[in-house]
Amino acid sequence: MMKHVVCFKLADNSPENCQKAKEVLLSMEGNVPMLRGISVGVDFLHSPRSYDLILEVLLDGPEVLDAYQSDPYHCDVVKKHMHAVAQSSVALDFLL
Known about the structure:
The protein is of the alpha+beta class and 96 residues long. It has one domain: Alpha-Beta Plaits, CATH 3.30.70.100. It is built from three helices and four strands. The protein has a four-stranded antiparallel beta sheet with strand order 2-3-1-4. The chain starts with a strand and ends with a strand.
């Protein structure tokens, strides 16, 4: 098993925009078949070093990561939205 983690800074981190981004990210559940688990959190601290959202995705292993990254729903809905609203992002992939 592995975890794919992405932290996003939004260009506009209003509560409404953070909530919409959270909903878009969570919409992968049931639409991206290789997901074994998903969680999304919204930052409440808003410190200068904070990111606005965190996405944690559980996958069977590194061999599934390419399929996840190129999944049609992930690309056409989620990445499209997040690229439009995110100012920056960082990612971490690790084995459990």
